[in-house]
Amino acid sequence: MSSAFNELQPVISDYFDALYHCDTELLQKVFHPKAVYATADEAPLLHRTMEDYVPVVAARQSPASRGETRTDAIEEIQFAGGNTAFARVRCSIGQSDFVDFLTFVRTDGRWQIMSKIFQIIPRQARSA
After folding, report:
1. Given 28, 33, 64, 107, which residue has the most CB atoms within 10 angstroms?
2. CA dist 64 → 38, 67, 80, 87 (Å)
3. Kind of pairing between the strands at 96-107 and 110-121
4. CA-CA distance, 119 to 39, in Å (whole number)?
5. pLDDT tens across 92-112, in order?
6. Are 86 and 100 spatial neighbours (Cβ–Cβ below 8 Å)?
7. How far apart are CA 75 and CA 77, in angstroms?
8. pLDDT tens digit string along 3-32?
9. H, E, C per residue of the chain
10. What is the pTM of this model?
11. C-beta separation of 86 from 75 below 8 A
């Protein structure tokens, strides 16, 4: 395995932990300050900056506090050169299952999420 792969996996793990615990400090560590958060599951298209997204997570009751079972999974990681990566991941929050497309940039030797585009997956489709 490449060094970049080994460096990226803990960032994705921190991403999952941040969502599960609604840990906004950790969330801001894994996301680049200029990152984009979006989904086409809502009309009109939902688009948030980190300034908009962090308070949403802070206001949630954490999945951890509700004792929710974690379903975190890394499905795919791809690299485009030494400083750009893509990960397709899955997780659940409340009654929703998500597929997240995360793009990463490495700046100053550190990987951060530059964009999160997500799709809500119906529960009955989870095992498909």
Report:
1. 28
2. 24, 5, 34, 24
3. antiparallel
4. 6
5. 998 889 999 999 999 999 999
6. no
7. 7
8. 888 899 999 999 999 999 999 999 999 999
9. CCHHHHHHHHHHHHHHHHHHHCCHHHHHHHEEEEEEEEECCCCCCEEEEHHHHHHHHHHCCCCCCCCCCCCCEEEEEEECCCCEEEEEEEEEECCEEEEEEEEEEEECCEEEEEEEEEEEECHHHCCC
10. 0.90
11. no
Structure tokens given for 66 = 């509700």
Instruction: Report whether 104 contacts 83 (CB < 8 A).
Output: no
Q: Cis omega before residue 122 (within 30°)?
A: no
- What does the alpha-carbon distance between residue 113 and residue 103 come to, in Å, rounded to a whole number? 6
Are 38 and 72 within 8 A, CB to CB?
Answer: no
Radius of gyration of the chain measured on its C-alpha atoms: 14
| Range 71-75, long-range pairs (CB < 8 A, 24+ positions) | 71/97, 72/16, 72/20, 74/9, 74/12, 75/99
